[in-house]
Amino acid sequence: MAYKYSGTFAITAPASITLTGPTGTLNVGDTVNITWTTTGTVGNVKIELYYSTSWSGTIVNSTANDGTFSWTIQSGQLSGTSSLYKLKIFETDGAPVDYSNFLTIIAEIRKTPSDSAQFTEVVTQVDPDDTWKTVKQPTDSIQFSDDDVNFDDPPRKWKHIKSPTDSIQFSEDDVLDDKRIYKKIRTPDDSASFSEAIVPLAKRVKVPADSASFTELVDGDRTHWKHFADQSDGVQFDEDVGDALKRPRSLSESTGFTEVVQGIPGKWKHLKYDSTSFNEQVNNWIKSTFNIGNGITFPPETVLGVPSRWKHLKDDSAAFTEIVDPDTRKWKHLKDQSDSIQFSTDEVIRTITEWHHITPTDSIQFSDDDTDYDTRTWKHLHPQSDSITFPEETVLGVPRIWKHIKDQDDSIGFSELDTNGELSMDNWYITEWHRFYYDSTAITESTMDDWYITQWHRFYEDNIAFSDEQVDHEIKTWKHIIDDVIAFTESVSDIFGEAPADATQFIESVTTAIFKSCKVRKFSDTSTETFGTFRKSGWLSSTDADGNANTIRRLNVEYNSADPLDFRIYIDGDDTNHAFLTSFPAAIGVETTNKSIRVGKRAKNFMLEIATVESTNSNVKIEDIEVEIDGKI
Amino acid sequence: MPVCSIVTVDNPTGSSSFSTGDSFTVEWDHNSTFVCAGWRVEEIKLQYYNGSTWSDTSTLWSGSHSVTGGDEGIDVTLANSYPNYGDAYRLRIKYDEAPF
After folding, report:
1. Least CA distance to B94: which residue of chain A?
2. What average pLDDT is seen over chain A?
3. Between 20 and 30 A from A369 (CA), which of A149, A322, A417, A487?
4. Boundaries of domain holding A583
């Protein structure tokens, strides 16, 4: 039985909304706070007033779901005095919805004579049965009708004090001649005498540049503005608009907000134009974008119980978009997908050697069980600039030798399991190392018929030398690549006559190679041939002591000729189709010229032909012809 | 060594978010080959992380689902309410790994 875990995901609470206030009896002109709570994800809300079961008025079309809305009860919203009012609140898209309990709203302000005690001037001129009337400006003022006034007793100063902070005084004679001047006083002490007209309630004249999206102007203490562009991205500024707006641009500045969204401390939503710096801060876990400098190797502490097992394969910084629960060690690196590392959660928990690197272009992918079985699948793909040399401890099996070519354009590929779970190269063993020239396709088995699995190859420019231990079979032939051509048929010493300059890096001496040189023909120092149609030839055996074909390694000629000399080699009895043709250039005036050329043909016997030379001045002197072959003695 | 195993869970992912009552398909990738015929997923549990440990919340699905039999996913439905909310949930997929 095995278990696999998904990534960590979220389950959000179901959306709901509950009105919590106001309650009881309200009066027209009152400013009350409508309050509510929500669960789940609820955006901006709409609040309406219902009379019985009928819509009576819209209080606000859209306001932030911040739990409170200041409502000044307007007479136009009412359908008279009743105890059948209800508030309805719902998300602007229609749901969730909640209704308040019944509210009693008094649609008219009716003051009884008993209220007169609050008047700072006498109102005894008012008959207890007089009618009280409401006026619309100021909102909570009361205008007395003509009949209420005793015209014989000027000046008529009428005052109505609704509350100490909201009192209104009427000036003289305002009733009769429409010179009504309204005054607003703030304290009872002021009410004794008014000398100036009240100006309309101050409205802010400064709004933020993007005020078009403001749907509400809060005029409490003139310091708080609410910005509800679409009710889902509300930003509340904590300073007066006359000052520089504080608009937090990063998490660290988020304390500038004076309220929290949805009542969750520390959780801010700021999604408008300046929201690039963050989306959300979530309790407990952090979702944010941050950089880890030029981090290359994560400290051992990064992974619990697995020191130094985290690797970062690129020189550039990692930009992790998420850290999810350090205990489960899930890191995602999603910068541009070209050099990322993604560790899954559970692999690390199960087996410390399970690493997953899933980027296709620049990756190292380790299979699940590479340390325990001989089916180790290792892939190391281009490029090499971010290479890693693995310690021997990485692999528990044999052999524990890992090589890495740094700064090469090519790579090392290890044999791997095919899709059927079997070795795709049956004759290969896990110790096989294959080097691919300039990222060429993998060398298939069919191209290496003459090779043995223990053959190790040294490359002329790359200087990879494998130790003796890696060559543990009977054929310890060292191969050498010249001019980037893979030619494994010649020994180093025979080609160059001496060990190459870097031969010291070969662990195994090339002198152990078993070659010999064989001169097949030698002319006398004084022999001179005139070539008209000249052909020197003769079949020579080139088999070794076991009768195996030898390699015709090199043709060397010392000559003096005014014309080029053509040489052909026929092999294995075929004297019609030459297997090799070379032309030595003219060497006029040169008494003796030692020219050699590689041949590289296998044959059990061969014939060397000095081909026809077309020349009018053919005075060709062959000093010496030497053909080298190799083979087991 | 489990030759036949679920390699990654493709859905839900670390960026997934669901509401109560939501249904979704649990999807995964596996590394099974022809030799893995018959191995099965047997249970999907919802787990919650309380800040220090993971604990089972509920079993979203149980039964026997052939991994290599075609559909590589199982439909599950979340409950209408949970004691906790937030991005601290994961799924645990229990499967019978083939004996290879």
Report:
1. A3
2. 46
3. A322
4. 529-630
